[in-house]
Every structure is written in structure tokens, then in C-alpha cells.
Amino acid sequence: MQHSPDNSSCRKAYITTPIYYVNDVAHIGHAYTTVIADALAIYSRMVGHDTFFLTGTDEHGQKIEEAAKARGKETQAYADEISGKFKALWDEFGISYDKFIRTTDTEHKQGVQFAFQKMFDKGDIYKDVYKGHYCISCETFFPKIQLVDDEFCPECGKPTSIVEEESYFFRLSDYQDRLLQWYHDNPDCILPRSKRNEVIRFVESGLEDLSVTRTSFDWGVHLPEAINDPKHVMYVWLDALMNYLTALGYGTDNTHMDQWPARVHLIGKDILRFHAIYWPAFLMSLEMPLPKHIAAHGWWTRNGEKMSKSKGNVVNPKEVADAYGLENFRYFMLREVPFGGDGDFSQRALIDRINSDLGNDLGNLLNRLIGMSGKYFEGRIESDLVGKYYQAELNAMRESITKLEPLLFEMQIHRYLEELWRPLSVANKAIDQYQPWTLMKEGREEEAMALNGLIATILANVAVMLHPVMPKTTTAIAGALGFEITQENYEKLIQKAGMLATFTVEKIPPLFPRIEEAVLVEKTEEKKIEKAPAKTEEKEEGVAMIGIDQFFQTSLKIGTVIQAEEVPKSKKLLLLQVDLGDGDVRQVVSGIKEWYSPEALLDTQVCLVANLKPAKLMGIKSEGMVLAAKDKEGLVLMRPEKPKKTGTAVS
Ligand code: MSP
Questions:
Q1: pLDDT digits over 452-505, tens only?
Q2: Do 574 and 447 share a structural domain?
């Protein structure tokens, strides 16, 4: 990030997270982006920048409409519920956002319509017919060449459908050269820089005009009235990206428009194309300045595996924060993964960071200072003689501290934290090397006082610079040293490399109690899968006679398989979404993988036991059972001889 030499308070810092889809609740990926953005916002406020931090939810589109339908809910009510959960989580996490935007907000919709009209009037939007392969899940059209096996989405692997519809198009192709010029003139417009090269290669290969409206569903922002084409709603990505402007009042009251352009849009690498190509092109069309930086982070996995709902291994940020402490979790996420790279969540890695970095290096240092300053100086430390005895250590600390801001501005947050730990190591070594107890024994009280001053000064510097990542913890550390983390103290200690003249050290309870073993229970999915088939076999034995009324207690229905995928790591199981009509979509885990591929099952009909109590297989909830006949030659599904209406009862 460009780093202006002055930190005057007139500098603007508009920081954004992506707005999160409301088809799912928050997981570690969402928490990661939000926490990085929060840390940047806290930092910007601390150094006196006029900061505006935006987050929110992305609520339109077919995906959301379908998610609501699958749960039998009205779309707006469903969006309200999930959006409310995101907001409640960020509030519980103390995320310091200035605005939480929802794309269903009236002002947002007005702002998007205003922008659409502007682009339309300019001639950047025209009407035509679109035919292409569309992935509902990613809300994206893909050229055939990019599809997997000519059918499946290259991003999420789900089947695409051919959509032919009248559409309005944005003249993206007209912006190719100007985009390339922008990337060229602003080497750090996309961070990390390696990602910028990927984007440049993509744009150089040629841009097609972008379809920016849909007629196949209704859950979206309608076109401006003046265009008079009511069957069209806006493409969700146009709607969603515009949030960064509408949140400031674009197209309505302009209240915060002085914050534009954004200092940084934080995003995950999967949505880089939308932010680094479409978004600047839209802005160019609107004749608005472009964001300073688009920073794309990597992907979180769990114990080395991709996280997914079907695997049941999604990391729930609230669970982790409750189990290990919110700020420890914040530190872990930001320290563990090089920004831009993929990272793995494991409880072991988190525990190691807490015990080692936080407990040993930081917590123990504070405890040592509390102990020795209390014992020798009743907690009152003067730091005027630190330079006389420990200039080398002070220099080493300052060398690290001056490297920090540029690292933060380049989004190298893991390196920022790594560098911040060097002064702690200098301090811990200084205690071991100069031994305050020996100094005191030898009557070298002045040196012992200076040593205490050195340690307190290092801890004060570290507390200030760690504040954005661990705000409460560092406030407690500052409290224990008798100072406050303020802009004034930031300027004194960090900017001007000054000293706090005195410290009054007070004992506080240990900040990082040692953790011996994992607090959260890991799922032992493989064990469950071994057991599951055995149970079924037992059931097949010893068939007893039943009456017709008993038979009718079983609800059998014709269902249509609308989604099918493999259950990872399982040799036997497939995960099916079976539509029973009227919005009743069942998730069914079925042991038929040896005989049927997911592709072969898609859009075919099955006979489903619809009133089985839900059970879990490999940690995945199964809400029904497909009927099949099996002998030594294999297994075949029981299906209607001719297609029947989805949901038809079988008797
Ligand atoms: N609604 C769009 C964003 C629109 S912004 C104008 C969207 N939403 S999302 O909820 O699907 O994803 C939000 C963010 O979460 C993205 O930045 C995405 O990269 C991030 N993550 C989702 N899963 C992730 C991991 N497993 N790991 C890290 N981040 C990931 O996309």
C-alpha cells in the first residue's frame, strides 16, 4: 500500500470486507477477512486516519432464493435471519465496523439503479440475447471451454445449465486497455503482487462483454424505471460490487462519499476476478476514482482438507473463539498464514501459537517484568537511563518497529507479526544475559532499573503495534504497565521513537494460561462409516410379517435427484439432494457409490423413504433413504418405469 510520509488526520481510510452471501452461516473464511479488515481499521484509527470500515451481507440472486425455498422460508425473512446472524457474530466479536450494509436495503437498491442508469445513458449498457452455461451456485456464466467435462462448473464442480435469455450487457471489452493501463501504472493495486500478474494475463487474453441482467428469477434489484423493462433484475455481482459505493451514499444522500476511493477492498482469492476486472471497469464507466488496493487472501483448509458442509469439517469461528479465546484466535489467523497463501486450521497449530508465541514470549515477559519491578522497585520504573546501558537493544527494537507499517500496508500481516516478535526475543534475551537479580546483588541498581525500563519500553512498543490484532489483550498489558494506547502514545513511541518516562507496573492475572490439549472434539467420521453398513445388513435379516397398516406407516415418494456428489474419503457413499416437490428438498447420504456415479444420477428419479428419522453418516445428516435391490451381481435403484411428477406417493 502506498505509504504517505505524513500521518495527518485528514488521511482517509475506507476499508471493506466482501459482503457475505446469506445462503450459509459464517465460517473461518468469513472471520478471517473480517478480522484482517478490523485490524486494519483499528490501526488506521489509532494513527489518526479518518476511517470508515464497511461489512455486510449479499442477499440477492437465485442461490439465495433457492436456499430459502429449500428451507420452506420466504426469501426476505430467510435473508433477514442469516444477515442477522452475521451481524450478531461480528458484534459478539467486537468487530469495529462503521456500517453493516445489506443489499436488500432501500438506499442500496436506489444507488445501484442510479449507477445502472448512468452506465446505460453513457452507452456502456446495451440489450442483446445471451446464451451460455450458467452456474447458479457461483452466479456466473462460463464459456464452454472452461467447463469440466463440457458440463460442470470450473469453480465449484456443480452442473451448469444452459441459459438463453434476453439480457443487458456491459461493454467490458471496451475497458480492456484501460484496465491493463491501470494495472501497469499501479503496481500494488492488487496485492499480493503475484495475484496482479494472474489478473493481467487473464485480461490480456481478451474480455467479452458482461451480461448484467437476468430474467430467469426475480429476487434482485429491478432496472431503473426509466428503462421500463420490468422482467429484468440485475446480475448479483453488479448489485453486490456496488455496495462499496452505495454504503457511502452513492446515488442517494452522498453522506460519506468523501471516503471514496477505498483504501483497500479485502477479499478471498476466489472473488478476485470480480473485484480486479469487473469492479474497476464499472467504476471507470461511472467516472469514479479506482480503489487504491484490492487485497486477496488465500483459502483456509481444515487438517489439510478443503472445508465443506457435506464433510462436516467447517470451522465455526464462534466455537473456536469460545474454546480458545477470541483474541488468541485473531492472532492465530493473522500470524499462521502468509497473506495470499492457503492456510490450515488445526487445533494443534492454534494451541502451539497460544502456548509458545503468546504464553512464552509475550505473557512470560510481562510476568517477569511484573515480578522483578515489584521485587526491586515497588513497580515504579524510570526509563531515562535505558539508552545509557542498553542502546544496542533499543536500536534492535527500533529497527523492527520501523519495518512494521510498510509490512502492514503491503498486507504482509504474518510478517508484521513475525517482525513484532523480534523485540520480545531481544527483551527475553536481555533478562537472561544481564540477570537483574545479579545486578541487584552486585549493587548495580541503576543498571537493573535501566533493564526494567528496557523491558517495559519494549513491551509498550509491542502492545501498541499489537493493538490492532489483540485490542483487549494489549489494553490489559498497557494497563499493567500504567499507560494507555492512544494516538498520542502511538506518535510518541512509534512515530517519534520516543520513550515513556515512567511506568507503574501492576500485577494482572495471567493473560495466556497454558493449554495442554485440544478443547474442541474432532469428528471421527471414518469410524461412523465403518459401522453404518453393518447396521443395514442386520436389518435385512429375520423378516417378520406385517399388516397393511404397518406398511402404510412408511411414506414412499418419487423424488428427483437435483444434486449428487461424492462424499470425500468414502468408498461407498454419495451425497444426494432429492427434490420431493413443494420446496421439500432432502439431503440423502446413500451407499450406492460403487454402482452409480453422481453424474449418472443427476435429474433421474428415485423412490425415497420420506419419513425415516434423520440419521448421520460420516457426520453428514441424511434425511431419507433411496430404495434399491442388491444381489451378488450388484445394486440397482428402484425407480418409476416412466417419469412421474416429483413428490408422487408410492403405495
Ligand atoms: N457475496 C460474495 C462477495 C461479494 S463482495 C462484493 C461472496 N460471498 S461468500 O460469502 O461466498 O464469500 C465471502 C468471502 O469468504 C470471500 O472473500 C471468500 O473468499 C471467503 N471464503 C469463503 N470460504 C473460504 C475459505 N475456506 N477460506 C478463506 N476464505 C474463504 O463471495
A1: 999 999 999 999 999 999 999 999 999 999 999 999 999 999 999 999 999 999
A2: no
**pLDDT tens digit sequence for 189-206:** 999 999 999 999 999 999
User: Which residue owns the Cα nearest ligand 1 atom 5?
Assistant: 18
d(CA 164, CA 142): 13
Q: How far apart are CA 265 and CA 297, in angstroms?
A: 11
For residue 137, report the distance from its CA to the centre of ligand 1, in Å.
Answer: 13
- For the stretch 105-150, pLDDT in tens is 999 999 999 999 999 999 999 999 988 898 888 878 887 878 888 8
The string of DSSP codes covering 439-473 is HHHTT-HHHHHHHHHHHHHHHHHHHHHHTTTSHHH
Ligand 1 midpoint to CA 234 (Å): 20
CB of 60 shorter than 6 A to ligand 1: no
Atom of ligand 1 nearest to the CA of 243: 6
Q: DSSP letter string over 574-624?
A: EEEEEE-STT-EEEEEES-TTT--HHHHTT-EEEEETTSPPEEETTEEE--
As a whole number of angstroms, the distance between CA 36 and CA 333 comes to 9
Point out the domain boundary residue: 439, 472, 504. 504
- Scored b (16 or more CB within 10 A) or e, 576-591 reads bbbbbeeebbbbbbbb
Q: Is residue 495 part of a domain?
A: yes
- C-alpha 199 to ligand 1 mean position (Å): 18
Q: Whose CA is nearest to atom 22 of ligand 1?
A: 29
Contacts of 222 (CB under 8 A, 6+ apart): 113, 230, 232, 233, 234
Determine if residue 542 is left, alpha or beta; phi over 0 gives left, psi from -120 to 50 gives alpha, anything else beta.
left
- pTM: predicted TM-score of the whole model, two decimal places: 0.79
Cα dist. 419→111, 180, 408, 474 in Å? 43, 34, 11, 17
- Whether 210 is in a domain gets the answer no
Question: Cβ distance 452 to 372 under 8 Å?
Answer: yes
Listed residue (334, 466, 416, 457) closest to 46, CA to CA: 466
Burial of 491 (0-12, 13-18, 19+ CB in 10 A): middle
Give Dmax over CA atoms of the chain in angstroms: 99
State residue 224 phi and psi, 5-degree precision.
Answer: -55, 145
227 three-state secondary structure: helix
Q: How many domains does the chain have?
A: 2
Neighbours of 505 (CB within 10 A): 24
Give the distance (Å) from ligand 1 centre to CA of residue 428.
40
| Distance of alpha carbon 82 from alpha carbon 71, whole angstroms | 12
Query: How far does the centroid of ligand 1 lie from the alpha carbon of residue 254, in Å?
Result: 28
- Residue 511 belongs to some domain of the structure: no
Q: What is the mean pLDDT of residues 592-597?
A: 90
Q: Does a structural domain hold residue 558? A: yes
Owning domain of residue 434: 345-504
The model's pLDDT over 145-155, given as tens digits with 9 standing for 90+, comes to 788 888 888 88
Cα of first residue to Cα of last residue in the chain, in angstroms, is 68
Q: What is the CATH number of the domain that holds 633?
A: 2.40.50.140
Nearest one of 178, 171, 179 to 209, comparing CA atoms = 171
Give the 3-state secondary structure of residue 294.
strand
